[in-house]
């Protein structure tokens, strides 16, 4: 009897694992149907069955949605609140409410650190490095998987560093410059390859200290520090992956890079915050900066960060005040750019960094 019952249980378990995603449909058709469910409802999908939960967590799901242009982009803002603690908020640009929601469960060891690296690779968000007044720079790294809403400890950086630039190029994370435990750190960078789950360290004397901004354009990484106290020129360098070296960026391009930058459809945009907020664009064909227009001072709260979603640039300022500019339909009325906005919040949180993650 026991033997027969054991065999029956085994058969039922086998049948359960072979149940289709949706009764009466082949799994490939079921995947096509489920993948069209908006990202905001993926949590609901995971409650239906163990198989559905495994599917939503899988790389197959992520790849299918991206391949068929079904993936949706959410914006993640790393902030510092009035208590000097790190916090993170997420915004779904497609939501009718369009409101920022706080993420819970950030790694406790990172909450008081400054100069933290913040980057997205695939469906994962990374927090790296950082320091405190009573704590030297660290090599610690943490990873947030957006498909399962969970943080885990990640492989540490090759080099302990803080106040550094982070970018993704050729499916690798670059942690560039900053400060660390020795004098070589400002002129070095680490790269993370998710395929091997390893970091590698490199150095180049041309990397600038005190990095203020960075972006990727035409397969190259650009970084800059502030204006030179002697010449008042913007100092920027560019990484050429074919040679693995850093070189001085063209002076005409660097001259207009005096605020937060973002690349949209291969075009570089910069928010000039020197007098109000003015959006300018780098025209590669004529090698000139072209003004697009000013943003209303009633809507923006500098200092701001920029991210691009679809054909729009999101200008995110103090307290997560958010202005949206559609660059293809950026009308200009009396010198002011036409834009939409998310209502101002009472918060005065400082915006440290903003990244986009698509699933």
TrEMBL record:
Coiled-coil intervals: none
Alphabetical list of PANTHER family matching this protein: F-BOX DOMAIN-CONTAINING PROTEIN, OS02G0202900 PROTEIN
Protein name stated in the entry: F-box/kelch-repeat protein SKIP4
Superkingdom as given in the UniProt entry: Eukaryota
Stretches for region Disordered: 1-22
Amino acid composition bias (Polar residues), ranges on this chain: 10-19
Ranges for domain F-box: 25-65
Pfam families: F-box, Kelch_FKB95
UniProt KW keywords: Kelch repeat, Repeat
């Amino acid at each position: 009897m026991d033997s027969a019952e054991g065999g029956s249980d085994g058969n039922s378990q086998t049948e359960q694992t072979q149940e289709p995603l949706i009764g009466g449909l082949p799994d490939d058709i079921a995947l096509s149907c489920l993948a069209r469910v908006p990202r905001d409802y993926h949590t609901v999908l995971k409650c239906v069955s163990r198989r559905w939960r495994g599917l939503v967590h899988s790389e197959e799901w992520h790849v299918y949605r991206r391949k068929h242009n079904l993936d949706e982009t959410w914006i993640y803002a790393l902030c510092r609140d009035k208590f000097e603690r790190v916090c993170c908020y997420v915004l779904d640009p497609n939501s009718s409410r369009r409101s920022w929601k706080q993420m819970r469960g950030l790694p406790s060891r990172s909450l008081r650190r400054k100069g933290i690296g913040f980057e997205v690779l695939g469906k994962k968000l990374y927090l790296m490095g950082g320091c405190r007044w009573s704590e030297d720079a660290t090599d610690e790294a943490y990873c947030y998987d957006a498909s399962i809403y969970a943080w885990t400890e990640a492989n540490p950086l090759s080099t302990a560093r803080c106040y550094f630039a982070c970018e993704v190029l050729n499916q690798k994370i670059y942690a560039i410059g900053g400060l660390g435990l020795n004098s070589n750190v400002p002129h070095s960078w680490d790269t993370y390859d998710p395929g091997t789950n390893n970091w590698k360290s490199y150095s180049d004397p041309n990397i600038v200290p005190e990095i203020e901004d960075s972006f990727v354009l035409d397969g190259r990484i650009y970084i800059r520090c502030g204006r030179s106290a002697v010449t008042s020129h913007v100092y920027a360098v560019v990484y050429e992956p074919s040679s693995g070296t850093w070189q001085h960026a063209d002076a005409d391009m660097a001259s207009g890079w005096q605020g937060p930058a973002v690349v949209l459809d291969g075009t570089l945009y910069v928010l000039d915050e020197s007098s109000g907020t003015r959006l300018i664009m780098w025209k590669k064909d004529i090698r000139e900066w072209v003004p697009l227009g000013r943003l209303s001072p009633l809507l923006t709260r500098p200092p701001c960060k920029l991210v691009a979603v679809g054909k729009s640039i999101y200008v995110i300022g103090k307290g997560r005040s958010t202005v949206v500019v559609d660059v293809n339909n950026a009308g200009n009325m009396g010198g002011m750019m036409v834009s939409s906005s998310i209502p101002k919040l009472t918060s005065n949180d400082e915006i440290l960094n903003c990244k986009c993650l698509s699933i």
